[in-house]
Amino acid sequence: MSQTIEFVDQTLRDGQQSLWGCRMRSHQAEAALPHIDRTGFDVVDLTGPGMFTVLLRQFRDNPWTSTDFLVQRLRNTECRASFRSRNIMGFGFTPDSIMDLWIRTQVKHGIQSFWLYDCLYDLPTMLRVTTVVHEAGAIPVPSIMYGLTDVHDDAFFVERAAKMALWPGVKSLYIEDAAGVLTPERAATLLPAIRAATGSVKLELHCHNTTGLAQHNYVEGLKAGFTSLHTASRPMANGPSLPSTEGMLPILERMGLEHRLDTNQFEPVAQNFIWAAGDAGFAPGQMAEFDPRIYDHQVPGGMTGTLKNQLAQHGMGHRFDEVLAEIPRVRRELGEPIMATPFSQFVGVQAVLNMLARERYDLVPDEVIQYALGHYGPVPRPIDPEVYDKIMASPRAEHFRSWIQPQPSLAEVRSRFRAGIPDEELLLRLMTSDREVDDMLTKGSIPVDPRRRSDVILQHVSSLVADPGTSSSISVSSPGMSVSLSRRPPAPAASPAAPNAS
């Protein structure tokens, strides 16, 4: 009997995060949701702290309302959220009491599983939040975040995967290549070794298609015994995103593997996101041209667009290639952290500052100082001694030498806000600012799909009814709604009365 492969849909989370920078609003997904729910995905990855922040700051949309909107339309599919084990607020540190509240509140809003990660592999912290997820009634999915460095060999990843597989409530592990730098040759050694070390725990594979090799890595994963693949609808796939669901099915067929997906649902989902991309001002996903520099700088796909935009905003767009050349040097000097949030941002920002300053490392952000001091977790390898000395010579370094992360209780955090504040609002105020949350609350409800608005339907109907043409019927349809009208044939004219005989 052939193996059945499960799929985790990333259209609504990492697909749009990679291609749109977390700027998908709930109404732009609305028409696709019933079809996604009927497709037969094992899991739909839905949201995370970054999406919450962007929705609130960019659009003043209430992220909790948006989450509810999505979850309520995916009733037949497990919904998943993500978070970094130490943080839900920017790149700083979140107290344990707030991390726990975030998890419990997400579960209250219908999130059934969480993938959680830490690129420095602070395993005690990861284990703590894994236990919190499990005790909250959700499924924890710890992540092995891949990096191409001299530090992270196969044995490094295998040792940590074996430990994670034994943690409370863990039913699956998630292996991610955020930068898209895993090659099929490395996958052929790494993935079988992880499979051999993790017993019967289900293994999920999540590879970004930045170099066009993700599908080939998926083939190696399938051969190694991985049974769950992360993909996205074609308009939200490829390039810095993940492989398309549509494109993986012929590969499964050729390998003699089966799936449970209803392929009839693919086209309406794709059509919706072609429309949504245009509505949001983005191009649909497409295969990326191969650029060998990715193996040096290892900048995740989603960060590449952000970096370009930020440089352009400061009149430095023409220096993008210089930044890419500086990033590998900084990454090596800082001990080769795996290039995913937040460490890819730390490296990228430091590279830009090195270009602007009179001397390299004259300007050092607080986060890089705290990273160097081990506040974010164990540094993969010792930082270059000369660079470390420059970082520690920063005026802010002395402040952080004796810094210990505050761990206020939930009651202590609440005391800073008005009495009776809901958990949801408390979390948003901690993640953003009082002014931004006040603006969101003033704005009110989240928008609806403009194609569904009754005034738009009525406008179409009115214009057709007023048409003096000879049409006997009209039909107007939009996602989830249709109107059909028929003209009654005119009554036959009365026959002239016959003259009275006299």
UniProtKB/TrEMBL annotation:
Region (Disordered): 467-502
Pfam families: HMGL-like, PYC_OADA
Name of the molecule in the record: Unannotated protein
GO molecular function, one term: pyruvate carboxylase activity
Ranges of biased composition (kind: Low complexity): 471-502
GO terms (BP aspect): gluconeogenesis
GO CC field: cytoplasm
Domain (Pyruvate carboxyltransferase) ranges: 5-267
Gene3D superfamilies per record: Aldolase class I
